[in-house]
Amino acid sequence: MLSQPVTGLVLTGGGARAAYQVGVLEAIAALRVACGAERAPWPFPVLTGTSAGAINAAALACGADDFQRAVRRISRVWRNFHAGQVYRADSLSVMRTGARWLTLLSVGWALARWRRMHPHSLLDNTPLHHLLARMVPLARVPGLIQRGHLRALAVTASSYSSGEHVTFFEAADALASWARSQRKSTRERITHAHLLASSAIPFVFPATRLPIDGHTEFFGDGSMRQTAPIAPAIHLGAERILVVGAGRMYEPPRPRPAGDVPPYPALAQIAGHALSTIFLDALSVDIERAQRINQTLALIPPEVRGRSPLRLLELLVIAPSQGLDEVAARHVNDLPGPVRTMLGALGVRANAANEGGAALASYLLFERGYTRELMALGRADTLARRSEVCAFFGWHDSGRPVAS
User: Which helix (H) or strand (E) holds 292?
Assistant: First the structure.
């Protein structure tokens, strides 16, 4: 009997948009039962994640001895989210961080002169520390790797200090580190600090100190300068990879506003555009690159290809079928009042997706109305591709109904 190829899961960044990933995982867990494969081995020996995807990947890795239970645990958190679990959303805290940051933008010359205020970020993500302690029991990971349930867990962060893109990984002894131009890996025991660093959205959340190569550097969101999101899974031995995105692979252009000269974009629209560039564009480019390499390798005779280190990569990509900005626009009013007021000052308005400001809100809407809608979308998108998903895992699909 031929051994199954090593399967990797790549979970990308996107703040609150990562709720979509949880819906995809719920659907995979349901299909696993419907296909009679619930006793099959752990489906993802290689888990890699960036930003909020790093948190989901790590939480999944901590339950690598029971996939169904691990998905249920993650789902409970995302299904009942509120912003206060991720960042301080009360009036005083928002004034201490966001209001000071906005003030710095307007009268920064005076503040720089007297050096009285040095805000680090728009929001204070201290509550996330406590959530990770409950949601992600990382102490379990070494034992799960030792017992063979898991091959590798990797999370990626970007160093503000060196400018390098670093993948921290915890893995079986046989797996070696790698280095490429402006990106490298380092074998480390993954901690909650690594998850905080990987998920520190630029300007929104503060950078995190991490030890590396015998010294300390400040790290931020791993989606920054991430030119090859799929690469860590390949380096860690994955031969087939499921990629779950946090935005449509091909966004249609927004409707043009009426009139010859469009209004000047609000700061929120510019910020949303910048975050979408950081979180979404690199994944699309990397997927296209992998597909082109596959097409080229397919032209080479198998006996010649066998003498090359290059190999065909089985790739399944699941991404939202709807624009998440539009979903976010419907839920802007779910945000805590102080945060909604602050974002309103930047140009974020409810039910105004076409103005672009909702893109910024889509990353910060850790509220259950929004996360549940994204989870439902992820589940529906995955079940709509039931035959592809079952074929990818090698499950026999008898057509049995999927439990709701």
Answer: helix 282-298
At 60, which amino acid appears? L
For residue 252, the SS3 value is coil
Q: How many CA atoms lie within 13 A of 160 on its CB side?
A: 15
What is the SS3 assignment for 314?
strand
Residue position matching structure tokens 């996107």: 14
| DSSP label at residue 74 | H
For residue 170 the two structure tokens come to 């915890």
User: Exposure of 382 by Cβ count < 10 A (0-12 exposed, 13-18 middle, 19+ buried)?
Assistant: buried
CA distance 6 to 44: 8
Q: Would you write out the chain's pLDDT as a tens digit for each of its 404 residues?
A: 346 789 999 999 889 999 999 999 999 999 999 999 988 889 999 999 999 999 999 999 999 999 999 999 999 999 999 999 999 888 777 766 655 555 555 545 444 444 555 567 788 899 999 999 999 999 999 999 999 999 999 999 999 999 999 999 999 888 899 998 888 999 999 999 999 999 999 888 999 999 998 899 999 998 887 778 999 999 999 999 999 988 766 666 666 656 667 777 777 778 777 877 777 777 888 888 888 888 888 888 887 777 777 778 899 999 999 989 899 999 999 999 988 888 887 778 777 666 567 888 899 999 999 999 999 999 999 999 999 999 999 999 988 888 77
Interior angle at CA 176, CA 170 and CA 177, nearest 5: 75
CA distance 283 to 329: 24
With beta carbons less than 8 A apart as the criterion, state whether 121 and 205 touch: yes
- If one counts every other C-beta atom within 10 angstroms of the C-beta of residue 237, the result is 17
CA angle 371, 336, 218 (to 5 degrees): 75
- Select from 119, 163, 170 the least CA-distant residue to 143: 170
Tell me the two tokens of residue 222: 């791993």
User: Helix, strand, coil shares of the chain as percentages rounded to 5?
Assistant: 45, 15, 40
CB 143 within 8 A of CB 124: no
Rounded distance, CA 129 to CA 394, Å? 38
Residue 175: closest CA among 150, 141, 196 = 150
φ, ψ (nearest 5 deg) of residue 220: -130, -165
